[in-house]
Amino acid sequence: MVLLFIVLLTVLVLPFVFRKVEENLELFLFLMGITATLVTGNMTWHLIKEALSEPIAITLAVLIAGALFFVIQDRFKRLINSICQKVPLTLVIFIIVVLLGLLSSLITAIVAAIILAEIIMLLPLARPQKIIICVIGCFSIGLGAVLTPLGEPLATIAVAKLNEDFLYLFNLLGEYILPLLIIMGVLGSLYLWRITGSQFKKSMGSKLASPQSCKRETSAECEQEISGVDSCVECEQEISGVDSCVECEQEISGTDSWKSIIIRALKVYLFVMALVFLGEGLQPLIDTYVLGLDNKLIYWLNMLSAVLDNATLAAAELSPKMNDPQIQAILMGLLVSGGMLIPGNIPNIISASKLKISMTEWAKIGVPLGLLLMVVMYFILLVT
Q: What is the 3-state composition of the chain as percent helix, strand, coil, each rounded to the nearest 5?
């Protein structure tokens, strides 16, 4: 147990302390997952097969969707550009966040996250603004996806474990989830309205940057149009791992390549595999110290969902013998805290990979927002 606590603490701390760990988060989590399973003696052929097969569907979805958006990128850019010219950007953000949150329960959280990332890449916003909108959007998708068993693995497992019907989670959690989706949309709109101010009106009529326009303009002009930074050096600093201004412009403007699409899919594969190992390896901690506790304590302990697969936690904690308030508390704790860090949810992983968001960048927005929502939902579910 001591070694497992060390592994858990390492997962929570090292990505924020060492830049190399943060930049190679997928590999780091994979190694930590392997370590945890070896410590507990849970490394079996069955687990290895599960870890190899579990990420396949998600990886294929990311690969196919990435290839599709790559093929239609010019048309998609024109569509988003047209919308941003005709509709206030604050309203665009509200619609994107709320609509994708709702649709995620039908089209799956994976597809919703891919659409979110592709749209955000094309919005006429600076990189810091894109990151905040992305985190808020992923909170919305992570919450909305639970409304049906189609949305995400947590919902599928919960319905199966509790022996309930298709609309059970919608009826159980809809009164909390639907207002939260609206709140996420309002938060995104208010943030953008406060940050952009008068500059927002100017950006509405401007065209989105494209590789073609970059070639015709100077480097500084192109960077200012795309990201709001003043030099190629600053532009490169915004996105780690690129070596030239051209590459930097491509990262910010949403230009992909077949190589980057394949690499991103492989990273998602390794990420999901890592979570399978990590969830299985840390299961003894859940069994020993979480199960059997009071609902109020379990609610807060479910913040482990920020670094562990929430579907695994749901499978361990839920029981048909529980009443509705107990199930609500467990699921809402898992869902809200899942948005705090990149490993917490599949939408986070996919979007962070596409937008090159680091663990630290995500945590700066996700942790405060998640803690605020956790406190609010605690009083709503367990106090009032």
A: 80, 0, 20
| Tokens 């010019």 sit on residue | 74
Task: Tell me which DSSP letter residue 302 carries.
Answer: G
The CA distance from 327 to 142, in Å, is 17
Q: Would 353 be classed as within a structural domain?
A: yes
Task: Give the C-alpha separation, 247 to 358, whole Å.
Answer: 18
Domain range spanning residue 158?
2-206+256-383
Could you give the CA distance from residue 135 to residue 141 in angstroms, rounded to a whole number? 10
Q: Do 124 and 149 meet the contact criterion of CB atoms below 8 Å apart?
A: no
The segment with the largest mean pLDDT, out of 12-21, 122-131, 242-251, is 122-131
- CA-CA distance, 254 to 79, in Å (whole number)? 14
Helices then strands (H, E): number in the chain? 22, 0
Kindly report the number of other CB atoms within 10 A of residue 120's CB atom. 22
Q: Percentage of the chain surpassing pLDDT 70?
A: 84
The whole-number pLDDT of residue 199 equals 52
345: helix, coil or strand?
Answer: coil
What number is the average pLDDT over the span 221-246? 38
- Which of 287, 290, 304, 286 has the alpha carbon at shortest distance from 374? 304
CB 187 within 8 A of CB 139: no
The answer to whether residue 168 sits within a structural domain is yes
**How many folded domains does the chain comprise?**
1
pTM of the full structure: 0.78
Cα 324 from Cα 145, distance rounded (Å): 19
Tell me if residue 280 falls in helix, strand or coil. helix
The answer to whether residue 175 sits within a structural domain is yes
164-210 residue pLDDT tens: 889 999 999 999 999 999 999 999 999 988 876 645 455 445 545 44
Task: Let me know if residue 272 belongs to a domain.
Answer: yes
